[in-house]
Design brief:
about 15% strand; 2 domains; UDP-N-acetylmuramoyl-L-alanine:D-glutamate ligase; 15 helices; six-stranded mixed sheet; Protein-Tyrosine Phosphatase, Chain A; 17 strands; alpha/beta; about 425 residues; eight-stranded mixed sheet
């Protein structure tokens, strides 16, 4: 829709930087809007990996329990409207344009980053659905993130933390310790639910950062847990008891971790009434776009015929590790097509890929901040059978697939969006 596109273009020009980690601009703007963020009941979700899937599980369980949600996530995969869910529905072009127009008028040409404008618009939109639960992802670094201007919330969820977006940190502080400081030092003091982490060191850093926070804290392995039972079930346990839960339809063991985190959070929130049946049905029905998603029909699927086509938007080493834990469970040859953004740790990302049959690098269309497929191939030259193709379709056609082989497209959320649009 032209009107929406024009407003978005204007908003992108209000600040010279894409990201500027300070909160005074958005606080001033929200004050002029009547501080709509002060009137919401919010579950805030931060971390490096698993935020989107954890939110999908929360939303799905709450829907089963007849709770309506407003949800804010970023970035989007295909269209910007995906970031705005009100009353369990994605916002229309018209309504989003209305919200952004009001932001533009009230802001009156003052410096404001694009993300701050989008975030203020989300809070403003919550006014119409003020009784709903709000689930808001807060990104990059938490402490300076525009979503982090709430004075109160009902819960913080900290998903799996790993190294990503290091280019935003001072050169001598690009460490996991600094990342965890940024993500957790400014959490509000209600309930904090900490998901499974990839190392004891990370848990130690988190505990250290939140030691003075008066919140009730719930750690994976200490306060809640799960074990994989027979093929179709996993067993979840916390202080309220144990549940035998059907496995989600989303692929990968890590989704059991995300599901468990969502269950733990909802069970500690005593004002939210959910039944065991709501949990079973919600976990089973949850889905998340471009997270180990199988493409079952469409233009690109037709190119691979009977072979399985998977798309995954993992783009950092932590995501690569859990993706490859899943690939190791598949008893077949795996071919990978990959495109990445320039600021990622490409070598560490690819280091988790073991025993793949072929690797094809590509350019990500429409993304000036991506690394060219040729440069990526150069970085991956130690990997056997690595080649470059200019685009997604050529890359798919160039892969020699035998019966039973799997084709995976991965490396970037932006690439995932392009693949889904093309398909």
């Amino acid at each position: 829709m032209m009107r929406l596109q024009k407003i978005l273009s204007r908003l992108q020009r209000l600040h010279p930087k894409e990201i500027d980690l300070s909160l005074n601009r958005i606080k001033n703007l929200c004050k002029k809007l009547g501080n709509p963020q002060d009137k919401i009941n919010c579950i805030q979700v931060c971390g490096t990996n698993g935020k989107g899937s954890t939110i999908s599980f929360l939303r799905s369980i709450l829907r089963e329990a007849n709770y309506k949600c407003n949800i804010y996530t970023s970035p989007h995969v295909k269209i910007i409207n995906e970031r705005y869910i009100y009353n369990d529905e994605m916002i229309s072009d018209n309504n989003l344009a209305d919200l952004l127009t009001e932001i533009e008028e009230v802001n009156n040409g003052q410096p404001l980053t694009y993300f701050e404008a989008l975030t203020a618009a989300f809070f403003l939109g919550c006014k119409e659905y003020s009784d709903n639960l709000v689930i808001a992802e807060f990104g990059l670094f938490g402490r300076g993130d525009a979503v982090n201007i709430l004075k109160k919330n009902i819960c913080n969820i900290v998903t799996s933390c790993s190294e990503d977006h290091l280019d935003w940190l001072p050169k001598n502080e690009r460490t996991i310790e600094r990342i965890i400081y940024e993500k957790t030092s400014a959490l509000l003091d209600t309930n904090i639910v900490i998901a499974k982490q990839s190392s004891n060191e990370i848990i130690r850093f988190i505990k250290n950062n939140i030691s003075k926070n008066k919140a009730k804290k719930y750690f994976f392995n200490e306060d809640y847990n799960f074990v994989l039972k027979e093929n179709d079930f996993f067993y979840y346990e916390d202080k309220y008891g144990g549940l035998k839960i059907p496995k989600p339809k989303m692929n990968g063991q890590f989704q059991l971790e995300n599901a468990s985190t969502a269950i733990a959070a909802l069970r500690v929130l005593e004002n939210i009434k959910i039944t065991d049946q709501n949990i079973f049905d919600g976990i089973k029905k949850a889905n998340n776009i471009a997270r180990l998603e199988e493409i079952k029909s469409g233009k690109l699927k037709n190119l691979v015929k009977d072979n399985m086509l998977l798309i995954d938007s993992s783009h950092n080493p932590g995501g690569s590790k859990v993706l490859n834990d899943y690939l190791q469970t598949l008893d077949c040859k795996i071919h990978v097509i990959i495109g990445m953004m320039a600021n990622k740790d490409h070598e560490k990302y690819i280091s988790y890929f073991k025993d793949i049959s072929s690797l094809t690098t590509i350019d990500i269309p429409n993304q000036p901040n991506s690394i060219s497929g040729k440069d990526l191939r150069e970085k991956f030259k130690n990997i056997p059978n690595v080649k470059y193709q200019t685009n997604i379709e050529e890359a798919i056609k160039s892969v020699n697939l035998d019966s039973g082989d799997v084709l995976l497209i991965t490396g970037s959320l932006y690439l995932a969006g392009e693949v889904l649009s093309l398909n």
